[in-house]
Amino acid sequence: MRKVNKEKTRLLPFFIPHIGCPYICVFCNQPRISGHQEMVTPTIIERAIEKAIAEQGQMGQWEVAYFGGSFTAIPRKLQDTLLAPATDAYRKGWIRGIRISTRPDAICIERLQELYAAGVRTIELGVQTLNGSMLIDAKRGHTVEDVELACAHIRQQGITLGIQLLPGLPGETWQTLVETAVRAGRLQADICRIYPVLVIEDTELADRVRQGSYTPLTIEEAVAYSAFLKTYLEKQGTKVIRVGLQSTEDFDAGRGIVGGPYAPAFGELVVNYQVRQHLQQTIEEHREVFEDPVSIKVEYARALTSKVRGLKNSNILYFIEQYGYTRWEWKQYKEGCTTEAIHMTIDGITYSITL
């Protein structure tokens, strides 16, 4: 097995429309995506690589990424044509590697070997869920076994493995979410993106919402689901590199979204929730041994302020409501302190909480 390079890279992304995808999932607006995005050309890719290096430097630190579609499901000749300028840059030492996103059932050992030779060093799979019946209902067109086999092949090839999960698909419950988390942990992925399901206009899910047969997650539910997945997978050694869709002008204005947990700062909400859980667990464990706390002081580094206090002081307000009988003090460490630990002192007893 080849060694996977896990050093930090800078992405140079290119969008590939869903021309290779053989299915239209219930959450996917394929006509809208393909109708409003033009296919990039090798010339565009080549010039973009040259410009990035010329203007920003960092030669050898870049990773050219092909996002947006099922890359290995498009015709082989087109794959090679699109890869050519990035492969050339890789062989010259201009970029660190190439990243692609694709479907679990569009992976085979022979093609993986060819992609590795071409400079592909990261593959992200659209896993979505690891509950078999939910995959069928979402019209994904692949099975849980397809996911497991594809992940094994990618890891064996020495390529960095990424997975993408969509909590909140039709049929999702805490039970199915835990099932997905446990199975996802066993995949031994290097990285993960978590995208709670949004209901986009002109999709089957949008029709189901209007018919009353599907209810999208609330923001609160999506935050709880995502925080659970993030916490669990990180404990299994998988780095969660994104939670929630990238903010766009249309989404911020409410255009194109029928329903679902969209928030521009969704990832921040999830981190705030994770910190809140850590703090609350510490309080409850203290209460199991001692009496209800009279005073609590929370100390943290300046860099952790927004995570600890929460967006618009949401965590502070939460704890005041939950433990109104307690005197609270929220305090930054002295200037220059860079510790990642949060210190919580409850009635004179100090606990160290490491995020």
Write a structural description:
- It is a single chain.
- This protein has 355 residues and is α/β, with parallel strands linked by helices.
- Among the domains are: 184 residues, TIM Barrel, CATH 3.20.20.70; 64 residues.
- Helix content is 41%, strand content 21%.
- The chain has a seven-stranded parallel beta sheet.
- Helix 7 links the parallel strand 5 and strand 6.
- Helix 7 packs parallel to helix 9 and helix 9 crosses helix 11.
- The N terminus is likely disordered.
Ends apart, CA distance between termini: 32 Å
Number of helices: 13
Assign the CATH superfamily of one domain.
Aldolase class I
Strand content of the residues, in percent? Answer: 15-25%
Identify the CATH architecture of one domain: Alpha-Beta Barrel
> Measured on Cα atoms, how large is the radius of gyration?
23 Å
Structural class by SSE content: alpha/beta
Which keywords apply here?
355 residues, alpha/beta, TIM Barrel, 7-stranded parallel beta sheet, 4-stranded mixed beta sheet, 13 helices, 41% helix
A few lines on this structure:
The protein is α/β, with parallel strands linked by helices and 355 residues long. It contains 13 helices and 13 strands. A hairpin with a 2-residue loop joins strand 12 and strand 13 (349-354).
Map the helices and strands:
Blueprint: E1 10-15, H1 30-36, H2 42-56, E2 62-67, H3 76-91, E3 95-102, H4 109-117, E4 120-128, H5 132-137, H6 144-156, E5 160-165, H7 174-186, E6 191-194, E7 199-200, H8 204-211, H9 219-235, E8 239-243, H10 249-252, E9 257-259, H11 266-289, E10 295-300, H12 305-309, H13 314-322, E11 327-332, E12 341-346, E13 349-354
Parallel strand pairs: 1-2, 2-3, 3-4, 4-5, 5-6, 6-8, 10-11
Antiparallel strand pairs: 7-9, 10-12, 12-13
